[in-house]
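Sequence and fold:
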Amino acid sequence: MCHVIVTCRSMLWTLLSIVVAFAELIAFMSADWLIGRAKPSNSEDGDNRTGGSQEPYHPTLGIYGRCTRISHMQFSRRDTLCGPYAENFSEIASGFWQATAIFLAMGIMILCTVAFVSVFTMCVQSIMKKSIFNVCGLLQGIAGLFLILGLILYPAGWGCQKAISYCGPYASAYKLGDCSLGWAFYTAIGGTVLTFICAVFSAQAEIATSSDKVQEEIEEGKNLICLL
């Protein structure tokens, strides 16, 4: 018989697991890892004859994507164009960024799997006498290690030609040059920290769902058990 067990700690762990997975996925897909040095708004097409505003903008560069601003001469209008600069994996600008993409992708896949499984822990708390919470916590710890490896390798790629074109000639491994870090990088770091918090908190979720109070509710024949 399926017993639906909901506790504050188990629900908090489930919500955090989902938030972490989405945060890392959004950061990975974003082009806002590096914010490039300021450029004139019409510098992308190399044509300054439009007489348009020279208000500077900051192009952004991600692991495999980028955002730039293009000018429409006939309308004196500027649009920001975002998309991948690499059509396939081998075209990613740096070998270090390729390794970053691999490690982050592996970590995110694990986190998404755990987030999906966490939704069903209200009904199923163990499989083959193994606590799902403990297994998921272990997987989250492994995912966190993958994320750390990816984030450590990412700055090593700042010396690639693509990064130099955005950050200036002084950019090199672990040196930003004229660039600054974007929100996606900080989101990835925050998500990594929360990943380890989730891994630790999974033990609390397991304790909460197997407490004496829960067992008493089960013995009373209740199928829906909600505890603070």
Notes: Residues 42-53, 73-77 have pLDDT under 50 and may be disordered.
